[in-house]
From TrEMBL:
Name of the protein in question: Protein-glutamate methylesterase/protein-glutamine glutaminase
Species whose genome carries this gene: Bradyrhizobium canariense
GO MF annotation: an example: protein-glutamine glutaminase activity
Every Response regulatory domain range: 20-138
Gene3D superfamilies, A to Z: 3.40.50.2300, Methylesterase CheB, C-terminal domain
Catalyzed reactions per annotation: [protein]-L-glutamate 5-O-methyl ester + H2O = L-glutamyl-[protein] + methanol + H(+); L-glutaminyl-[protein] + H2O = L-glutamyl-[protein] + NH4(+)
InterPro entries, alphabetized: CheB-like, CheB_C, CheY-like_superfamily, Sig_transdc_resp-reg_Me-estase, Sig_transdc_resp-reg_receiver
Free-text note regarding domains: Contains a C-terminal catalytic domain, and an N-terminal region which modulates catalytic activity.
UniProt-annotated catalytic positions: S207, H235, D331
Post-translational modification: Phosphorylated by CheA. Phosphorylation of the N-terminal regulatory domain activates the methylesterase activity.
GO cellular component terms, A-Z: cytoplasm
Annotated PANTHER family: PROTEIN-GLUTAMATE METHYLESTERASE/PROTEIN-GLUTAMINE GLUTAMINASE, PROTEIN-GLUTAMATE METHYLESTERASE_PROTEIN-GLUTAMINE GLUTAMINASE 1
């Protein structure tokens, strides 16, 4: 039997084994709702439905889940206290923090990411609102499926580059340090040459795993931020983007804030798309301005990356360098194609250091990237490119 056929059969076998999901929430309504959603998916099952973090810690070995959906506010032992105890018992457990949209819970969710949580999801204020419940349903199932798939398989090494050892991505790095199976031939990704035109703006798109990646990245691209506009769309709800902007300011030691409709874009500042609104850029006389809109979701996201990427072409033409970081889905790929067609360049984060290789994988597999790099190699590359390097 050929190696390629063996790989296909193994992959199919893995897919037939449903993900075991542990739901931990003190609300019987939320537990029931999430459990019904999970139970209706063919590739996942409810391994347990528990009321407190203490129950989860005490029963973890017996339940042996692949993924835990962990509420923040619970009696006996809350989510943020249960998190390190769960990971101490099972290091590769995927934990998705769930919380309502408050400033306090947003801050706790960011702390949870630093402690090893894989992702977060905002719970709607009321499940009676059909649209809010549907968004929660869609996002939760996608996060469970995407993150759960990664824990089931070893992260592939980059074809020619070593995986990152960046501290903020220790959990991703953990996958790459495990014993690897015999290598399977991978299709060669098409690489484009970098644009011969000097980049005049850095645009970044990210989703799942993005906050950690962004904070690592901006800490090392000070020379770029000082001289060029930096605009970021991270898939994230309101309040969370406020907190993320504050974290980016601390990591970069430069001003960072949620973009304001109509404000002039200048070098030296990081502009972040606010949760719940798409961010575009437009010409404002001889200057460039932010344009926010409340239009429908794009690629199931709001804010979405594609509107930013596409709008920038009218402003900077071939002088765009776009970066697609870790995240689910394919947002950024279509806008990246437009940027390349206009003469700009696209870089994607590699699979080994991505929490989810959806967005960067879509860009890489579309053949629009000039480079696919581990996280710890992206900042040095950006600094060189914005300093005049064209390769």
């Amino acid at each position: 039997m050929s190696i390629a056929l063996t790989s296909v059969l193994t992959s199919n076998a893995v897919r037939q084994d449903p993900l075991r999901v542990m739901v931990v929430d003190d609300s019987v309504v939320i537990r029931g709702l999430i459990s019904r959603w999970i139970g209706s998916e063919p590739d996942m099952m409810v391994a347990a439905s528990l009321r407190t973090g203490l129950d989860a810690v005490n029963q973890l070995e017996r339940i042996n889940p692949d993924v835990a959906v962990l509420d923040i506010e619970m009696p006996e032992l809350d989510g943020i206290s249960a998190l390190p105890r769960l990971l101490a018992k099972k290091r590769n457990l995927i934990i998705i923090m769930a919380s309502t949209l408050t400033r306090r819970n947003a801050e706790i969710s960011f702390k949870a990411l630093s402690l090893g949580a894989s992702d977060y999801i905002p719970k709607p204020e009321s499940t009676r609102e059909a649209s809010a419940a549907e968004i929660f349903h869609h996002d939760l199932i996608q996060k469970i499926r995407s993150l759960g798939a990664k824990v089931r398989r070893p992260a592939p090494a980059s074809p020619s580059l070593a995986p990152s050892s960046t501290p903020a991505f220790e959990r991703s790095r953990e996958f790459s340090l495990r014993p690897q199976p015999a290598p399977v031939a991978q299709p060669q990704l098409i690489r484009r040459a970098f644009s011969t035109h000097a980049p005049r703006a850095l645009l970044i798109g990210s989703s799942t795993g993005g906050p950690q990646a962004l904070m690592t990245l901006v800490a090392d691209i000070g020379p770029v931020i000082d001289r060029f506009p930096v605009l970021i769309t991270q898939h994230m709800p309101p309040t969370f983007t406020t907190i993320l902007a504050e974290h980016l300011a601390r990591s970069s030691h430069r001003p960072a804030h949620e973009a304001i409709d109509g404000e002039i874009v200048r070098a030296g500042t990081i502009y972040l798309a606010p949760g719940g609104r798409h961010m575009r850029v437009v010409r404002h006389g001889a200057e460039v301005a932010i344009a926010l809109d409340d239009g429908p979701p794009v690629n199931f996201c709001k804010p979405a990356v594609d509107p930013l990427f596409t709008s920038a072409i009218d402003v900077w033409q071939s002088g765009i360098l776009a970066l697609v970081l870790t995240g689910m889905g394919s947002d950024g790929m279509r806008g990246g194609k437009d940027i390349v067609t206009a003469g700009g360049s696209v870089i994607a984060q590699d699979e080994a250091t991505s929490v989810v290789w959806g967005m960067p994988g879509a860009a890489a597999n579309a053949g629009i990237c000039a480079a696919v790099l581990p996280l710890n190699q992206i900042a040095p590359k950006l600094v060189r490119l914005f300093s005049g390097d064209r390769s």
